[in-house]
Every structure is written in C-alpha cells, then in structure tokens.
Amino acid sequence: MEKLLNIYNTIEGLSQEEAQYHVSQFEKVIFAKKTIILREGTVEDYLYFIDKGIIRFFVNKIHPTEPSKEITFSLISENMFCSAYDSFITRKPCAYNVETVQETFMYRIHFDDLQKLYERSKVGNYLGRISAENLYVRKTQREISLLMHSAEERYTNLAKAYPHFIREIPLKHIASYIGITPQALSRIRKQNL
C-alpha cells in the first residue's frame, strides 16, 4: 500500500490524514498468473492500482475461415492505475478481456466507493482525472506508434521504455501488442542481438 500512498502524498495540499483515508478505501487483491480479472461481456466494477505484476488487455478475434486468436492491445505494470475504463465509466459490458501475465498484487476500489470519494473531496476527482489522463496518453501513444513506426522500431521502443516487459511477458503477447506475428518478432530479436 506504500506505493499507492506515495501517489497520494504527491498531491499538493493533501493532508496525511486525508491521504490515509483515501488509501483505506482500496482493498488489496492478489491474482495468480493467467487469471482473467474481467471477461468480455461483463461490466468493470473496479479501478486498480498495480503494486506488483503485469496486466494485459486483449480481444478474441474470431473469423469464420481462420482459427480464433487473441490480440493484446494494452500492457500495464506496477505503479500504474488500470481498468477497463470505458466499461467502468459507462457501466456497460466490456468488449475485451483483462488478464494477469504473472502473479499480480493490486489495490482496487469499487465504482460506488470511488463515487463517494469524488463527492467527499476534490482530491478524489483529481485522482480520477489523473488516472483517465494516463490511460488516454498510453492509448494514444500506442496508436501513433502503430501508424508511424516500423515493427522493429515498435519493439525497440517497447524494450527501452519497459525492459521488464521483454523479460517477463510471453513473446506471443509482445508480438501481438506490437502488431506482428511471433515469427516476425523472432527475426527482429535475432537481428538486435
């Protein structure tokens, strides 16, 4: 809980007592490796803060003449907030899945409890805004990367920004995330050795 409290402690003008109160509204949860936290078709009820671990967001691409496959479109790791945020804020079923890549330790707050924090103080609103902004920035950066960079550049940029992803995430998920096949990723990795 220390990492989450540290985030609250960076908020200017927030007392230690108020920071402690906000953090106390989160519950600690631990998920085993490869646990589906949210399944497609269900509503997201939680905003999570990842203390340790990695989460992936993926869709199941189903085509009538091809085998179905999972496409990873987001990877989130420690010291980050995460959620199926579109479902969380609209209260509508999610169109994708959220899964742990490894054993993951998180703190979560239920939608209703977060609404109470929003009503109680401006800090709650600030945290919600910061979480949404961070998720938006990551999404936009990935979209631009897919449009502007080669597969090799996307891999190199990911390895520089998040070297632990390369070490800790199965290559099939890395390949899917950067928009290439596992075979193409193997070729890129061989060239970069």
Automatic annotation (TrEMBL):
Lineage top rank: taxon: Bacteria
Question: Which Gene3D superfamilies does this UniProt record tie to the protein?
Answer: Jelly Rolls
Ranges of residues in domain Cyclic nucleotide-binding:
10-117
Protein name (Swiss-Prot/TrEMBL): Crp/Fnr family transcriptional regulator
- Could you tell me which species this protein originates from? Chryseobacterium muglaense
